[in-house]
Amino acid sequence: MAIERGNVIIVERGRRKERLPGSGLLEGMAVVWRHWQGSFRKNRSFSQIHGTFTLEYPEERPKLPEAYRNMPILLYDEETGHELCTSCFQCQRICPPQVIHMTQAKDPATGKPVPAVAEFVIEYDACMSCGFCAEVCPFDAIKMDHEFELSTADHGSLTVAKEQLNRPIGYYERIAPTMWAEVREQALKKLQGNIKRRPGVLGMAPNLAEKIAARLRELATTAPVEAAPTTPPGPSAPAGRLSPEEKAARLAAIRARNDAAPADAPPPPAPAGARDGHGEPAPSDVPPAVNPADAKAARLAAIRARNAARAQEQAPPEPPAPPASRARTDEPEG
Ligand code: SF4
Ligand code: SF4
Q1: Residue 126 CA: which ligand 1 atom is closest?
Q2: Do 87 and 162 contact (CB within 8 A), yes or no?
Q3: What does DSSP say about strands 113-123 and 100-106: parallel, antiparallel, or unpaired?
Q4: What pLDDT, on a 0 to 100 scale, did the predictor assign at position 46?
Q5: Which ligand ends up closest to the CA of 130?
Q6: What's the whole-model pTM score?
Q7: Is the omega angle on the peptide bond into residue 58 within 30 degrees of 0, that is, cis?
Q8: Cα–ligand 1 centroid distance for 91 (angstroms)
Q9: 137, 10, 4, 122: which is closest to 72 by C-alpha?
Q10: What does residue 300 show for φ and ψ, rounded to 5 degrees?
């Protein structure tokens, strides 16, 4: 019986190149030799990424490219002492591991928020150096530093506050001249606009104590601005809109209500007949989902408490009090 095999394609292979025995071994050894003797060649132009070279670290250090990024820093203008950050919260929102925490500065006279940051904390130990915060910042206030020698045995010191994050613009200009030149004009223009909206010393770098003190003295010597005449409430406000006094009263009432509400108050019971997202009756004893804003606030409060405790620990011990003089009494005994 004949078997159908279909089409058969026969491939004619050429004759294999004859190789001397041991030639493969010799070729491998030649490669090893080339790399081994190349490792003794000094390469001092660290700009190239090919080739083998050894740095005698820490005496020798590579010249890092401008776009190298490690940890974020905040910039301030050394001319005026003002920080570029306006507390717009963009970097806090975009940070993937949520390690940026901040609060916005408020005008102490009016209680209104101003374009300046009051507190700014980054948890360096959880930062992944993605650079998203620097990419998204519309004011070029946060940039990526080149510093990489951050190892420490003190884990708590990696939660870094504004005082340690602040760098003058000149510092960033030195490490990334081309990148800063591209944004310099716009960044300084925006800063000038924001400075006009910052009363007093709000938005000034806290580590510029001298400049801040000089600014305070300057403010004290300038004549106080006359208060604007207050408009009588009620009739002067356009119909349907609240007058400034009414707005202030409403804001005060909201603040009072918020202050009066205990932070650990139990959640209100679910109304009768309430249903959850799956159509099931909502149990009144199920804890509500944690609000991300509350979680952030709790995290910032924990960081504050930890920093305060650390500052207390590191404070020099108080000198022993002089022995108290014996109290004199003129009253007769008995
Ligand atoms: S570099 Fe990335 S992880 Fe680090 S603070 Fe910025 S956004 Fe967050
Ligand atoms: S660093 Fe930039 S993005 Fe972050 S709050 Fe300040 S101005 Fe906004």
Answers
A1: 3
A2: no
A3: antiparallel
A4: 52
A5: 1
A6: 0.59
A7: yes
A8: 8
A9: 122
A10: -65, -40
**Residue 282 CB contacts under 8 Å (≥ 6 apart), including other chains:** 270, 274, 275, 276
How far, in Å, are 80, 85, 170, 191 from residue 185 at the CA level? 16, 16, 14, 10
Angle at 147 between CA 49 and CA 159, to 5 degrees: 135
- Rounded Cα distance between 109 and 281, Å, is 49
CB 144 within 8 A of CB 131: yes
> 210 alpha carbon to ligand 2 midpoint, in Å?
25
| Buried b / exposed e along 239-253 (16+ C-beta atoms within 10 A) | eeeebeeeeeeeeee
CA distance 316 to 327: 31
Domains in the chain, CATH or no CATH each: 72-218 (3.30.70)
Task: Give how far Cα 126 sits from Cα of 71, 97, 143, 144, 295, Å.
Answer: 11, 7, 17, 15, 17
- Interval 33-83: pLDDT, tens: 988 887 776 655 555 555 566 678 888 887 889 999 999 999 999 888 999
C-alpha–C-alpha distance, residues 13 and 36, integer Å: 38
Q: Do residues 217 and 210 lie in contact, with contact meaning Cβ atoms separated by under 8 Å?
A: no
Radius of gyration over every alpha carbon of the chain, rounded to an integer in angstroms: 34
Residue whose pair of structure tokens reads 């009051």 in the numeric block: 118
**Distance (Å, whole) CA 107 – CA 84:** 17
* CB of 80 closer than 8 Å to CB of 196: no
Supply the pLDDT for residue 300: 83
258 pLDDT above the threshold of 90: no
Q: How far, in Å, from the CA of 88 to the mean position of ligand 2? A: 5
- Separation of alpha carbons 52 and 37, rounded Å: 10
Q: Among 76-80, 221-225, 227-231, 253-257, which stretch is predicted with the lowest mean pLDDT? A: 227-231
The alpha carbon of 101 and the centre of ligand 1 are apart by a number of angstroms equal to 11
Ligand 2 shell residues, CB under 6 Å? 85-91, 117, 136-137, 139, 141-142
